[in-house]
Write a structure and sequence with these properties.
By secondary structure, the chain is an alpha+beta fold. The chain folds into 2 domains: 108 residues, Immunoglobulins (Immunoglobulin-like, Sandwich); 43 residues, no CATH class. The chain is 24% helix and 26% strand. The chain has a 6-stranded mixed beta sheet with strand order 1-9-8-3-4-5, with no helix packed on it. Strand 8 and strand 9 form a beta hairpin. The radius of gyration is 33 Å and the shape is rod-shaped. The relative contact order is 0.18. The mean pLDDT is 77.
């Protein structure tokens, strides 16, 4: 057996399965399984008579596997496993039954990556940004008169400062 295939947590990985094929690739049967220490092996993906047959696929792999039929004529029954999970670590077996003969390949997959039970920052942004915007709107709406007066006062003093020469200190204006 070859050295383990190292998969990154959350990324896709392709498991290789070379085989020799005859002239006709149509009656090709491909089965991918994951060996289990106890109990029956898990059905990862199956392909019979030109079609994926996923009715008995283990739930852990639903929507995460893909074969590449365009590669079959080159003797390649590789499987792409999407969004790798830590539970995907283990030994996989590929069985290929072409028109003549039978081929099997076994490989080990190890999963690397930090496992965290904490939600991502995107979740925090989604949860907290909407309430913060609502609170900000309520505060601004409640104090809008006061804020408008302050804004007008600031604009007045900014304009006056520009008229009198920029960064120079303002002189008080006394009305008579």
């Amino acid at each position: 057996m070859e050295s383990p295939i190292v998969a990154q947590l959350g990324q896709d990985v392709t498991l290789s399965c070379p085989f020799e094929f005859g002239l006709n690739v149509q009656p090709l049967n491909i089965t991918w399984k994951k060996e289990e220490a106890e109990g029956p092996d898990l059905l990862v993906h199956s392909y019979y008579n030109g079609m994926d047959k996923l009715q008995r696929q283990d739930v852990a792999y639903k929507g995460r596997t893909q074969l590449h039929p365009e590669r079959f004529p080159q003797g390649n029954a590789s499987l792409t496993l999407r969004r790798v999970r830590s539970q995907d670590e283990g030994f996989y077996i590929c069985h290929v039954k072409p028109e003549l003969g039978r081929f099997s390949a076994q490989m080990q997959v190890t999963v690397e990556g930090f496992v965290s039970n904490r939600p991502s920052l995107d979740v925090y942004y989604a949860v907290f940004s909407v309430p913060l915007l609502i609170i900000a709107f309520i505060i601004i709406n409640k104090h809008r008169r006061f804020l408008l007066r302050k804004l007008k006062s600031f604009q007045f003093w900014s304009q006056r400062k520009q008229q009198e020469g920029g960064d120079q200190p303002l002189k008080p204006v006394y009305s008579q």
